[in-house]
């Protein structure tokens, strides 16, 4: 019993170090993980697709894919998992963890960069390090056309115009015949430079609000 408890404690400590979550937050998230997985050790896309709060989200596919994207495990590996275990689930959730009063300026900047990289990965669907016009257009189309407020052709036009504006900002001396390959991560950082990301980027679609999650009081 003592050896088993020690292994469990060590595992939780390791997860706390990797993710920045508290022990109680990890335990609460583990309960949610087991609920989603049906008490299995891994979660599949089908498990996340069953979440009702995601059903009408225009970025539903990108959000679900993000959980299985190996790039979001902070080890620079490419590709996708077929299923993920609790540690991988927790690593993805940690991208939405807000700063607290003890978070230093350096830590806030690191958190911001991680959040931006996570968002970039969601758009860079082929993992080539560039958000192309095709990828950007697809996201804009889904955001606008699925809302019912605008048609597909209008959404395409908005995406194309936005990409041209990004190109003129990031490559101001580009000749008319030059082809703009797309948005690099460095461009992406510049585009969102003035947007406060550290506390605003949070998650509710798993019925877990990490902006209000406190020890023993997670919204499950």
Structure commentary:
With 220 residues, this protein is mostly helical. 51% of the residues lie in helices and 5% in strands. The strands form two sheets. It has a two-stranded antiparallel ribbon. Strands 3-4 form a two-stranded antiparallel ribbon. Helix 4 crosses helix 6. The chain starts with a helix and ends in a 29-residue tail after the last helix. Mean pLDDT is 78; it is low at 209-220. Its main location: other. It is a lipid-anchor. GO terms for molecular function: calcium ion binding; protein kinase inhibitor activity. It holds the Pfam family EF-hand_6.
Beta fraction: under 5%
Contiguous uncertain segments of 5+ residues: 209-220
**SS element count, helices:** 9
> What pattern of helices and strands is seen along the backbone?
HHEHHEHHEHHEH
Q: Find the CATH superfamily of the domain at 1-98 and 202-220.
A: EF-hand
Largest sheet composition: 2 strands, antiparallel
Count of extended strands: 4
Assign the structural class, choosing from mainly alpha, mainly beta, alpha/beta, alpha+beta, or little secondary structure.
mainly alpha
Order of strands, widest sheet = 1-2
User: Ends: how far apart?
Assistant: 29 Å
Q: What's the CATH C level of the domain at 1-98 and 202-220?
A: Mainly Alpha
Compute the average pLDDT: 78
Oligomer: single chain
Helix content: 40-55%
Give the overall form.
Answer: globular
Radius of gyration: 19 Å
Pfam family, one: EF-hand_6
Main location: other
Family: Belongs to the calcineurin regulatory subunit family. CHP subfamily.
Protein name: Calcineurin B homologous protein 3
């Amino acid at each position: 019993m003592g050896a088993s408890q020690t292994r469990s404690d060590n595992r939780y400590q390791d997860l706390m170090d990797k993710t920045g979550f508290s022990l109680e937050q990890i335990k609460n998230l583990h309960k949610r993980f087991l609920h989603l997985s049906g008490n299995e050790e891994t979660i599949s896309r089908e498990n996340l697709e069953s979440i009702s709060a995601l059903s009408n989200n225009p970025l539903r596919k990108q959000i679900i894919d993000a959980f299985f994207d190996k790039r979001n495990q902070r080890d620079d590996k490419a590709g996708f998992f077929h299923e993920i275990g609790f540690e991988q689930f927790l690593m993805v959730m940690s991208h939405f963890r807000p700063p607290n009063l003890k978070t230093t300026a350096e830590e806030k900047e690191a958190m911001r960069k991680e959040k931006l990289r996570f968002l970039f990965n969601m758009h860079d669907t082929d993992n080539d390090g560039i958000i192309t016009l095709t990828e950007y257009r697809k996201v804009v189309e889904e955001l606008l056309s699925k809302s019912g407020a605008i048609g597909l052709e209008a959404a395409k036009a908005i995406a194309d115009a936005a990409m041209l504006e990004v190109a003129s900002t990031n490559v101001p001396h580009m000749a008319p015949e030059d082809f703009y390959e797309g948005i690099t991560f460095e461009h992406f950082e510049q585009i969102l430079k003035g947007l406060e990301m550290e506390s605003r980027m949070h998650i509710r679609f798993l019925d877990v609000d990490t902006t209000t999650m406190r020890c023993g009081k997670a919204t499950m």
